[in-house]
Amino acid sequence: MLKKAIIGKKVGMTQIFDENGKVIPVTVIEAGPCTVVQKKTAEKEGYDAVQVGFDAVEERKLTKPALGHLKKAGSGPVRILKEFRLENAADMNVGDVLKADVFAEGDHVDVVGVSKGKGYAGVVKRWGQHEQSATHGVGPVHRSPGSMGASTDPSRVMPGKKLAGHLGVEQVTVQNLIVVKVDAEKNLLAVRGAIPGPKGGAVVIKNTTRAL
Predict the structure, then answer these.
(1) Contact, 172 vs 115, CB < 8 A?
(2) What is the bridge-based pairing of β-strands 34-40 and 49-56?
(3) Tell me: the pLDDT tens digits for 76-97?
(4) The pTM is what?
């Protein structure tokens, strides 16, 4: 059960200075506004939750079922829908708006995003494996994975073998980051450290499960 959560968009990284003049690297996130488009109750669905929408788009970019769902809630077309099981979900109603000020300076948060895509990558870049020896007849295969195992037994590559393949575009969660600054007017959060994804990438900010 979450206390706080909101959908946002990664703006980019910058730095700010604290009262002692120390540099703090931060990621700026456009957090909200997110409109509640559906409310789920324990009586009907078996649990309390709210579905919120974020990032307005043109109607032509959505399917008819998605548009119908949003119009039923009285919401404009949005690109992203997420469901949150919030502690106060039972007190919220369709049409309510979540803004960046649900968080405060000093809050510890987890940020969930999709990592940058890096295309097809070899085992050295993808898994951090060592290169082969640069001498003794290795040949032009210094970054290849090398031996896959014995020839007679098991005579095959075992499942789960770390090989070359697509790198990135995976859900990544960075835990226990600190909210350094909140700009309620512009719906901006400054979170200490880096978060996953490219500029403009969608992220979910929620209260952390790892706070000390």
Answers:
(1) yes
(2) antiparallel
(3) 899 999 999 988 888 888 888 8
(4) 0.84
